[in-house]
Every structure is written in structure tokens, then in C-alpha cells.
Amino acid sequence: MAAWSRTALRKLHRWIALFIAGFIIFYSITGILLNHRKAFHYFIQKEHTIQRVPLSNTSRLREFIEFYKRQIGRNDDPKVIRIKDGDTLEFLYGSHGRITYTIHPAKGIMEIVQKSELQPWSHLNRLHKAFKTSRSWILFSDLSSLLLLTATLSGLLIFHYKKSDYAVLALGLLTFLAMLFLT
Fold first, then answer.
1. Contacts for 169-178 with beta carbons within 8 Å, 24 or more apart?
2. Number of H-type helices and E-type strands within the chain
3. Number of domains observed in the structure of the chain
4. Which residues span the domain enclosing 171?
5. Final residue of a domain: which of 114, 148, 170?
6. Mean pLDDT over residues 40-69, rounded?
7. Is the pLDDT of residue 30 over 90?
8. Quick one: 135 and 165 in the same domain?
9. What's the pLDDT at 6?
10. pTM for the whole thing?
């Protein structure tokens, strides 16, 4: 390989690596955080307050729910009951509404949507849900993320850079930040 092309390839490799360094750092850190999101309370802060309300008889509410459970043909209580648009009821059963019954009382119709996992995509998605994934996979992905992070950061620290290299790194970081805030 000619000397000029080898030098050009090294520069190209260096610039691409500098450009994507911000992405690698971001994905490594967020990957580790997502693997352990339960430890961080799913990144949600809850404020719990209690207020007094008048006591009421819940029998009418139970009658209402039982009436629609009979129409659905199920004896178990749904996970979620939603009222949509003021005139439509949704009864969600299973995790994340795996089966959803949408009842339109004024139209006299009921829609039933049953979700099922598409393989292999569902399995790949599950790899990023630590509570459904084996500990060995979590350990492997955490270590891989730490190795990527270490290689990227050490690479940024040990090499000598020119002004143009800093410009490419800054461009990569700005591109990353722009995409982060635009999505």
C-alpha cells in the first residue's frame, strides 16, 4: 500500500473514531444504567400524598365493572380500566395490555386486540430489560460497556491531537447533543 494512502486511511480512521467517541461514551453509560434501572427506581421520582374524600359505596362501581366483564367473557379483574374520549371503555389484561378490550357502548361494538411477541426481535428487546434477563447477560453487557468506555476514554487521553482533530471531536459531540435534544 502506498505511503500516502496508508496515511490517509489512518487519518480517516482517527477522524471517524473521534466523531463517534461521544456516541460510544453515551451508549456505554446509558446501557449500564438501563441494565440496572430498577436500582434507580426506573428513573422516576414519586411524590405520595393522601387526601380525604367522602366515603362512598363501591357496589355501583363493582356492578359497572362486572357488567362489562360479563360482556367480555372474563371473570378476572383487568389490570387497567381506561375511559377514552368520554364514551369508550378499555379493559387491559396482562402486562402492558397484552389483551385489550375496547368497548363502544353507544355503537354496540367491542374491539379485541391481542398482542404477541415477534421473534427474534422480542428476544433482542428483552436483552435490555434486566429484570427479564439472566445475570450472566447483564454482567457480559456491563463489562462490554465498561471496556468500550475505557478504550474510548483512554484513546482520547493518550493520543496527541491537532486542532482539526479537536474540531472533529467537537462536531461529533455537537451532533450527538443535537440528536439527543431533537428526539
1. 169/18, 169/19, 169/21, 169/22, 171/19, 172/18, 172/19, 172/20, 172/21, 172/22, 172/23, 173/21, 173/22, 175/19, 175/22, 176/22, 176/23, 176/26, 177/22
2. 5, 4
3. 2
4. 15-36+119-182
5. 114
6. 89
7. no
8. yes
9. 79
10. 0.55
- Residue 117's nearest CA partner among 94, 150, 87 is 94
Please say whether the beta carbons of 142 and 34 come within 8 A: no
Beta strands in 41-180 (DSSP E): 80-84, 88-93, 99-104, 109-114
Nearest-angstrom CA–CA distance, 137 and 126:
11
What is the residue whose three cell numbers read 371503555? 89
Same-domain pairing of 177 and 129: yes
Does any domain span residue 46?
Answer: no
Do 110 and 144 lie in one domain? The reply is no
Q: What is the pLDDT of residues 69-115, one digit of tens each?
A: 999 999 999 999 999 988 999 999 987 778 999 999 999 999 999 99
Instruction: Output the nine-digit C-alpha cell for 110.
Output: 367491542
Q: Which has the closest alpha carbon to 24: 182, 149, 135?
A: 149
Residue 166 lies in a domain: yes
Q: Write the single-letter amino acid at 41.
A: H
Examine the domain organization and report whether 108 and 123 are in the same domain: no
